[in-house]
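Below is how a single chain appears once it has passed through the pipeline. First comes the sequence as given, then the structure the pipeline wrote out for it. We keep one example in the README because the format questions we get most often are answered faster by looking than by reading.
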Amino acid sequence: RNIFANSPLPKWIYDFETLRFLEVNKMAIQHYGYTEEEFLGMTIKDIRPREDHEKLSDDLLKIEQEPDIRNGDWRHIKKNGEEIIVKISAHFIPYNGIKARIVVVIDITDRVKAEQSKQFASDNLSALINNTRDMMWSVDKNLKLITSNDSFNRMVERLIGRSIQPGETVLPLALGNEWVKRYSGFYTKALGGEAFTILEYIDIDGPLWSDISFYPIRQGNTVVGTACFSRDITDSKKAQDKINSIEKRMLSLKIQAQKKVTRAIIKGQEHERNHIGRELHDNVNQLLASAKLYLGIAANKNPRLKRLIEYPVELINNCVDEIRSLTHGYVTPLKNIDLRETVQSLLDKVENGSSIKTKLDYDHMDTTIGDELKLNLYRVIQEQLNNIVKHAHAKSIIVSICISNNEICLSISDDGVGFNIDARRNGIGVSNMINRVEMFNGDLRIDSAPGAGCRVHVNIPVEALK
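Resulting structure:
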C-alpha cells in the first residue's frame, strides 16, 4: 500500500463493474488536479473525452474475454480541461471482495507532440513536391530558398524573367524595393515562430488575388525556416465582391423602405395636426365666441353685470388669440403648397412677435419639388426658428432656399449667442429635423460656436425626389 500511495507515477484502483474510482495515489491527485473526494465521486469515463467512451466500452468487453495485463495509449482530461496523452498499464487485483483493477499511468503528451511535429515537417516536405496549382515554397533562416514547386517557379519567372534556385535569396532586387521590404518582414515574422496569412493583390496579365500563409518550420523547439503556401482566390474574391454588392443593395433597399414607412407616419401626423388645428379653430373658437356673445347680451340689460363680466370676457379673448396662434402652427396646406409664402409667413410672425429682423432668399423652384418635401422643409425651418427665438438672443435671421449642383440647399443662419455643438442637448427638436431630412436621403449639418451664431445646412439630392 505504501508503494501505491508514494509511487512517482499516477495510480488508481477502480471497480470493474461500476467503473468508479476506489483509491487514487498522491501523484494522480497532483497530476490531474482533482481532490481525492472528487476522484472517488467519479468514474474512469469522467476523465476521458466523450468521443472516447465507445472505445473504452469496447476495451472493457475485451478485458473480460482476455483478463491479462493490458497496455495502451489513451487520451485523458485534467480538471483544468487540459487534454493529455497517456500510456497505461492495468490488471486485476483482489480488493475487499470487489472485482477491481489497478492502473499505472505514464504521461507521454510531450513525446507524442514531438513526434507529431516531426511528422508535420515530413508531410510539409512531401506536399511541396506534389503537383498542385497552389504555390508552395520554403525558406531558411537566412531567407534563402530551400525548395519550391512548379507553380512557384512559374510565378517567379513571370515576375522577374527567371526562376530562383535552391540556395539563392528569395528576395532578388528584381522584385523591387517595396516588394523586398514587405516580404522580408513577412519571412522574419514567420521565422519568429508565428503562423499567419496575408491577402495579396498583384496585377500581372490581369488582377490576381491570393491568400498567402506562412508557417514556421521547427526542429525541436528551434525555428529553422518557414513553409509558405499561396492559393489563388481571384474567383472567390470576385464572387465575394458580388455578394457584398448585393448585400449593400439590399441594405439600401431596406433603408429606403424604412424611410418610406417614416414618411407615411409623418404624413399621417401632419393630417392629424391639421385636423386638430381645424377643430380648435372652427369648433372651440366658435363656442368661445358664442359664449362671449351671450355674456354681452346679458350685460347690456344689467350695468352691474356688465362690470362683472369684463374680466371673463378678457379671458375669452385671450383664449381665442392663443388658439389662433396655436392653430396657425398646426394647420398648413397639404396640397399645392407655396413654400415661399408659407416660409415668409413664418418669418413675418417672428418679426411681429420680437425685435428680430428676418430675410428670405428664395430661388423659384416650386415646380421642382413635391408637396411632401415642401411640408417637411417648412417643418425644419419652423423648428429652427422656434429654437432661435427661444435660445439664440439673435438680432437677425436669414433663410436661404435654392438648387445648386443637383441638390436642394436650405440654410438657416442667425447672429445669436451660438453654442457648443459637442455639448449634450435636451429635447428632440434637432433629432426631428434630422429625421425629416434623412427621409429624402438628405444631410443636415449644424455649424455653431459660443458667440458665433448658428447655421443649419440642409442638402437633399434632386435625384432622391424622382
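The mean pLDDT is 83.

See the next section for the split statistics.
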